[in-house]
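Question thread 4412

I'm putting together a teaching handout and wanted feedback from people who do this every day. The idea is simple: show students a protein as raw sequence, then show them the structure tokens that encode its fold, then repeat with a second protein so they can compare. Below is the first pair exactly as I plan to print it.
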Amino acid sequence: MSFRTPEILRSVILDDIRGAQKMLAGVARMTPMEGSRHLSRLVGAPVHLKCENLQRTGSFKLRGAYVRIAGLRPEERAAGVVAASAGNHAQGVALASSLLGVRSTVFMPVGAPLPKVAATREYGADVRLVGHVVDETLAAAEEYARETGAVFIHPFDHPDIVAGQGTVGLEILEQCPEVRTILVGVGGGGLVAGIAVAVKALRPDVKIIGVQAEGAAAYPPSLAAGRPVSIEAPATMADGIKVGRPGDVPFKIIGDLVDDVRTVSEDELSSALLLCLERAKMVVEPAGASTVAALLSDPASFEGPVVALLSGGNVDPLLMQRILRHGMAAAGRYLSLRLRLTDRPGALAGLLGALSVADANVLDVSHVRTDPRLGLTEVEVELHLETKGPEHCEEVASALRATGYTILD
């Protein structure tokens, strides 16, 4: 990244985070911590969810943005601030700037979710839509900073940002003093770095585990190389942690203090988001659900009590709809079948009756009569069913076969 100075490259200590906590009093909420009986049963130890999805602006980003902007000199505040973000950082910078009376300009990608664009504007930022990927948006924001003198507010690669995010760690220790493991989603690394500084200074016995999406996992190769390494074209539904290169400031901290960085698949992210909605009654974005995905992928590997951080809840409704479908499929809650029937009155009704007896909910039916593969008296039926899980899928298929239906491959 550009705009680097020796001050930016300094590290973060516990006193910085305590100072940030005082600064954030009355600004950031102490978000609640909720127990999860379902996850506790899976892990075999108490599991608590730290709900930063209920923070102002819907994510933890307000903490770091406010501390960074509040620390600017008067002449820097007068010049205004600029940021680049697809969503959470944009809203954090916009609200923090408004609270501090600082003019903010936020560059967002063309095609950014409309609710996030609207929220950023409502928090007071001048929003400019530039570029189709975040790298292009970031370049535009940096060019604006050079031309206007506005202070560029990086989403994760600055000590003040790390210190602000680290206040989450102090809250976790206060709300769950018996914690043994803390799970944190990782993109650029500012959040987990701040939490690690706070927690390890006070409780070095607590394990800090970062979680990345498999398609955007820059930290494992970077830690192996001993330096930040860029990955090409990071790809994941979890846009809040879709970062191609670790930040220089958090990387050193993570290498020293974070015990492990794990990865989760897209299927695991979808299943975790569905679980948060159904079992915890929490609306969580995919990045925020990454910690729950890690628990679901290997529940026996964590020492409890465990705190899983739900880092944000800003998810576009259309994306949520797609992810929930994907999550239900990954959890075995959908079943697709193709069958051939004799083309006679009542044949389809009989099939639907058999599915009703099997307690399968029909979502969609495709009834094909005109296909060269079919005999003169045949029709092909494709069904999409909602089921209760993998075992129920097998029960439905077996019930149909027992009734005399042939299921096609």
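The second pair follows. I'd like the answer to focus on this one:
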Amino acid sequence: MSDMHNSQNAHGGHGFETVAIHAGNTADPLTGAVVPPIYQVSTYKQDGVGGLRSGYEYSRSANPTRTALEENLAALEGGRRGLAFASGLAAEDCLLRTLLSPGDHVVIPNDAYGGTFRLFAKVVSRWGVEWSVADTSDPASVRAALTPKTKVIWVETPSNPLLGITDIAAVAQVAREAGARLVVDNTFASPYLQQPLALGADVVVHSLTKYMGGHSDVVGGALIVADPALGDELAYHQNAMGAVAGPMDAWLVLRGIKTLPVRMDRHSENATKVADMLSRHARVTRVLYPGLPEHPGHEVAAKQMKAFGGMVSFQVEGGEEAAVAVCDRAKLFTLGESLGGVESLIEHPGRMTHASVAGSALEVPSDLVRLSVGIESADDLLADLQQALG
């Protein structure tokens, strides 16, 4: 697998683990505190009319705790500007309203988070933005979906919930030829495993709720861009629209990021063991994990990712009711939505996270179970899945 994600040159001469801990985390000048303080404040004393102290006037516009997180995010993704939002969907909404105008067109993947699809299909489309679906694992499919009005190509890799893999560099070339922006949702991989900007993407999107926060205790979102001018434009809209990350949320994500590398290593190790066990289980008809050699995106994932991540999906014999029963019987795997926390989660996408795509081109198989494999003892996780499968 590629070593580019730990490239010291991409991080100002320091390794990823060092950057995760130190970027944006300068010692407090007043007390020397090694952790950025939580600036739970709405407004700031000005040094005369229009004299902003360190550039702060109102916490919707900027807050020191959020600034620390945004600097950290930009450094980890190798970008020029990072912006933190109240949720992943708030980040996506700001991005789309910044990049698009009525009449524009977007290519979206045939496998994506249900909330992202809902934003396109039920919200942005009402504003006169058109969209069409492509299999982003096939650059020719993306090219065929383009129109003269295409402004954005949207990619998730690995995708949610079918763990599809898109060759970011190949689709970036398609985007460049079309004069469109390539947006990559990097939530499932995290910047530790994959850095889309280095592969040609224009914008990286994160739900900070997931692996970046890592502890199921905060909701947040982020945008990271390579182009400073686009960063300025997004920052203008972030302030104008106002869905910013609060200081406590920013602080929690900053704390989570410090252990991101060691957590992702364990998530990936555990998920590999889970996928191997499931692939041999008599009641499992298909396992979706890019680390398996038989996965159609395995070679691309090995090229552009450091490891294969902590998400595993699988299909079971017996159809939808059997899949729901597996979810209900699990004990150590908690039945719940979301993902990326230290604890393992199990869910039925068709009835839970992806109910909004029912009846669309993004509808997921009814016999599908999705796992967020945590960092518990792998033997305990395997035993729980074996009893849940019966």
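Top answer:
Good format. For the second protein you could add a caption like this: The CA atoms of residues 43 and 278 lie 54 Å apart. The two ends are 35 Å apart (CA to CA).
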